[in-house]
Amino acid sequence: MEKIEHIGIAVKSLKDSNEMYTKLLGTAPYKTEAVASEGVNTSFFKMGASKIELLEATQDDSPIAKFLEKRGEGVHHIAYAVDDIRSEMKRLKDEGFHLLNEEPKKGADNKWVAFLHPKSTGGVLIELCQDID
In CATH, what number is assigned to the domain containing residue 103? Predict the structure, then answer.
């Protein structure tokens, strides 16, 4: 793993949260994007070499909607940048971590993504991210 790529934060309203984070960070989001496969709208803020990703549910049965219902707004996941997502997935599986998906899938911000179950990572949802060439 190279670095923390971003911290994902579940929000009820992307519009309201974008306004608040713009004031907080002193900069507007550089990108907004819908990820239909995950049932979310996202926005990204740059923070030096890392990013903040805000996630708003677009479907009542999406993972973000379920998270918000159970826990409310707040930190949803930590994402780590990797060079080779498939080899990192294999390494982590061999180390005993539980992967939520067997193959990487296309995520937001032009990335391949895969997730590790929080039950195998001390209660933290971990996302692996690799740039799509």
Answer: 3.10.180.10
